[in-house]
Amino acid sequence: MDSLNSYLVIAAVLFALGIYGVITRKNAVAILMGIELILNSANINFIAFNRFGGMETLDGHVFSIFVIVLAAAEAAVALAIVINLFKNIGSVNVDDADLLKG
Amino acid sequence: MESSILTFLIFLPVAGAALMLPFSKLYGKENTHYFKWIALITTGIQFALALILYRKFDPALSVTESPFTVQIDWIKHFNIQYFLGVDGLSMPMVLLTALLSFICILASWKIEKQALGYFSLFLLLDAGMMGVFLALDFFLFYVFWEVMLLPMYFLIGIWGGPQRMYAAIKFFLYTLFGSVFMLLAMLALYYYSDPHTFNLITLIQTASSIDASIWGFSVKYLIWIGLFIGFAIKVPIFPFHTWLPLAHVEAPTAISVILAGVLLKMGTYGLLRISYPLLPGEVVNFSYILAVLGVINIIWGAVNAIAQIDMKKMVAYSSVSHMGYVLLGMAAAISESSAGAQAGMNGAVMQMFNHGTITAMLFLLVGMVYDRAHHRWIIFPRDYEKPELAGQPGFGGIGAQVPIYTGFVALAFFAGLGLPALSGFISEAMCFIGGFSAFRTLTIIGTLGILLNAIYFLRAYQRIFLGPLNETYKDLTDINKIELATIVPLAIITLVLGVYPAPLLNMIAPAMDGIIQIVQSAL
Amino acid sequence: MGENIFLMIAGLVIASAFWVVFSPNLIHSAVSLLFTLFGTAGLYVFLYADFIAATQVVIYVGGILVLIIFGVMLTNRIDTPSIAAGSANQFIGGIGAFAIFVMQIGVIFNTPWQIGNNQSRETTVDTIGKLLLNEYLLPFEIVSILLLAALMGAALLSRRN
Amino acid sequence: MESNLNLLALLNLFLPLVSFAILIFFGKKIGESAHWVALTLIGITLVIAMFFFSTVFSPHEGPILQSSIQWFTTGSFTLYLGFLINNVAAIMLLVVALISFLVHLYSVEYMKGDPRYSRYFAYLGIFTFSMNGIVLADSLVMMYVFWELVGLSSYLLIGFWFEKDSAANACKKAFLTNRVGDIGMFIGMMILFFTVGTFQLDGLADGVKDGAFSGNMQLLTIAGILVFMGAVGKSAQFPLHIWLPDAMEGPTPVSALIHAATMVAAGVYMVVRIFPILTPGALEFIAVVGAITALMAAIIAITQNDIKRVLAYSTVSQLGYMIMALGVGAYQAGFFHLTTHAMFKACLFLCSGSVIHAMHHALHELHDHDTDPQDMRFMGGLKSKMPITYWSMLIATLAIAGVPFFSGFLSKDAILAGTLSYYHSHHGWTIFLPLAGFGAAAITAFYMFRLIFMTFYGKPYEQKIHAHIHESPVKMTFPLILLSVFSLALIFTLPNTVNPVDSHGWFTHAVPMVQNNAGLDMHAVEEGIHHAHYTAMTLSLIVAGLGIFVSVLFYLLQKIDASKISSFMNKFKFYDISFNKFYIDEIYNFLLYKPFLGLSWIASKLDWDLYDQKFIDGWGWITLKLSDKSGDADYNWLDQKIVDGFGNLTNYFGKNLKLSQNGVVQNYLLGGMLGVVLLIIIFQQF
User: Fold this and answer.
1) How far is CA D595 from the centre of its chain?
2) Interface test with C, best of D670, D678, D682 (most C CBs within 10 A)
3) Domain tally for chain A?
4) Contact D357/D476 with Cβ under 8 angstroms?
5) In this structure, is residue B406 part of a structural domain?
6) Interface pTM (ipTM) of the complex?
């Protein structure tokens, strides 16, 4: 079981779930969680490819570190936005934030 | 200097019109005398330029040799050129246009209604007319031809008489109808000539070699028909003439003068400038019809003029009649006798010039009496608005009241009916002599015009000026200084050219020789 | 033994991820996310990525997840009986996500992956450290500046008025 | 010498024009002294004319002066202006200048006090100028030019008192009637030009001689008749004579100058000038026209009561004589009669003017504005009151009646001889020509003495008027006396002969027979005239005596009651026909003028109300209707359905698609995701 494909399948599951979460969830924080899932699936791929790809170096690891850092930054900013949104419209339901409505 | 004089002649009025705008902003549109003076000075300079051109003009030189010719590429892709030139055919027309424009500004001195518009449109019209007479590129010619149409439409439609809109639209549609045919003919000429060109001088060589047919008709024949309809409406040749009485009657005095004095000439000018040199073969085939139409014009115009009770309408129909002489003279280009051909062609161009001056006088004089009496009925119509006047003579016996005016009217009327020693006689006689050499019977019928023209002029003269004085007009004032200034130059020209036509003829003759040669070579 | 643990961890990750997405309660989702993240860290271990696994635990679990839970807390009234996390577009979204998943699976199994030698199980920290401070120095610095800016921005955004 | 003559001819031509120009432009300032300008300039003209006349007697070959300059040219079409003065022209010049001068002099008194006094003399000036132009012209074109100018001056002078409707009508009628003839002349000129190639008179004669028309004499006949049409108009020949009697609306001196002596003679003069190219056929036509005119006008003159109308018809009749003379080939006689007639007819008119002037003043003093001063029935017994006028008029009447010792006898006699000789050589219907000639001679004698008796003899119509009649002043009587002297036969025969019945005086020497280049044997004609001379003389004496005798019976002795005779004649409508001038005016009016005006009215209706308003505007109407329909189709169907259909469709989709833009970010994301799926499916990347 310890093969590339098993990791990739896990990552694919996580990715699909993340997408599903991002699309279907109403709560902004829940959407954020979906995004975290997607990022994690990507990280898994990085590491898995680094492990099985016959790489001499650990560039995949470095990339995943960067992704983690970005995820942190993203989470901080996104949450700040969510809080602001809540302050302004009293809800974090993204359906209520429809100022773009045509 | 010499090569730019033609450009100046055309675009000076445009500059004048443009100059009016700052004045209207600075001093307001109410200060109409600024516009009048600008227009007067502009046309004055233009006239002076035309005179300078006349002084330096050498009729012996062809257009290609003349120092005045301008030839610059305009739209290179289509071989369209800014090509201006002057020869013996256009020189009299340029002089006539410049002179009449100047005089018409004077005659419009009383215009107060929207003077800015009037005078600027008038100057644009002036530029268009000048351009038509100077252009030697068909495309340029067509552009000027159309440029002139629009100001005319507004000038009739805004400053005209009670039926002005009807008249203006009629004029516009009629002329546009003709223009369409002309445009088609122009494009056909362009596409069938090799190399493709609008250059009228080059086309003289190339157009005759066009050898194609559409729907079984030769292309040259179709081009001729198209051009003919376009020009015929302007002349106007029967049966395209009915825009003319209406437009003349409804237009303000100065515009009637321009209409009859210059615009009508464009038709015959176009025939002589374009149709004749380019399609001599068709001229030969068509000249009989041209002569027939000329005679119809002479007779029909005169017969109609006799029945008119509106002075202006009478003069308008007299124009129809007089332009018939031009056609008859032009048709004589195919005459076997070289004296006949020359008499006819030269007579035709002279008649164009002379009719321009004479009819201008007539319209100016009618305008003067209209200014004073506020009507111009020879006899009031039966359905006149004041029933007590219906059917009564409109004037009567004012000859003793306004002797100077009467004198000028007599001069103009007698010039119109072709009295010798006045310019009309020589050109009419030459047209007849030319016509006679080619079409005997037709010309003999046409000479009836000599009598018919006399009938309506003398009847009108008698009804207006002779007989006991109509008491309504016992306070009528005689001609004033401005009016005198408009009428005297024309009267002098009429007299001088009647006695000594050589200056005009010497100018025309070499150009006509060229056209006759082309036409005769196609016989 | 290792195989079984891997399967366990993989099952944990997938199951908890499902719950993150489908849980009607937001708090449950957040808690479930904790398990997903832990599981992922376990997977890293299986992949000989000891440093990344540690980082995952420290940053995700210790930082991001706490942030998310704070977010949940701050944006929902405490007195609501359950912090609802409604869903929409479940049908289309499900089909879409499933389609993407199928495609990914397709890609995964249809691609002849280049499989190299397994790396030795030695610690990765020093290598990563060298890489970061040599080859990836510039990205590293930029990311740090980005992080700083993001934090400052987040602080600014969430300031009252 | 040549250039001097040229200068003189130019002066002769242009001095009257100078008079016209000065008086027209400065007439207001000059005012009452206008006649001094005119008299001086015409006086100089007269002196020059006398000089030219004097050269007639010096022996010379060919014309006295022939010169021409190019007027204008177009290369091969060239017109010339020039002078051709031969003996005929020189005599004509003198006649014109003399009568013009006398009429000027006469008018000083006659026109005194007229508001347009200076204008009158100006018009006389332009008339004299134009007339001189005709006389001097060396080409048909130049002649035509002045021909028309004469028409103009005649128009101006007839319509001088244009406040009178009758005058205004008359001047128009004169001009238009003349124009009818001019058309013919113009066409004839063109035929000649394109056959011979020139308008020059001598050139035409030479061309015809050289056979330019050989084989086509028919055309030359037609051309000749057409050119003669001009003379028919100007010399008031049948059927265009109708204008001349009406022209009497002008001032009487004008009638004397223009409508008796000079302008109407221009037609005759023109025929004289072109005589060499007239074919026998054309001449026959000319003779018939002249004969008809002579007889018809004489018959009309019998019944007229207006003194000037009698003279006018007598003029028409005498012009007919001249034309007839030229037609029968009696070239000399025709021109001779022109000259003598100019003198005595001018005298008659001026005398009648003197009478009218006197009557007018008498009536004016009586404040009588209803009585016509020209009607002979209101005159009578003026002999004692106006002796000079009476004697002058009597002499002139004797001359016109053809009584020996007076000039008319000589010339009329020659004409009648010509007609007789023509009959002798042609026989058949040509007997009409001498019959008409003698008949007209008898009638002329009759009505002229009728005029004399009604005016000067018998009892005055009203004593009151008679008492106020005075003889005219010397400025008026001097011309009368002079002209009556010129009506004596001796004037024309001295110094060659004093035999009163022998016409072979200086005149016949000065005007020798010309050659006819178109086929008439002039020697034979001359011979014939010579033979017929005595017969004609005898006959003419008899008919003239008869006419005078009847007139004496009717009007002097009143042995026969004129009214009885006239009512008897009127049983056959003869009187009415004569009195109403054969109804020719009415016929023209009814058959030509009125229908023509109607025609022109119909034409204008056709042109405007039918052709333009219906046909041309019909196109506009059709276009409008079509454009209505097409506009309808365009709007309701093309625009509303198709074009707007697209709009509506877009709108519809927009409205519905708008719903997708609901601002829900997730929907966008969903769309994006589906797009990705779609793209991947499309590109089949696995």
Assistant:
1) 24
2) D670
3) 1
4) yes
5) yes
6) 0.68
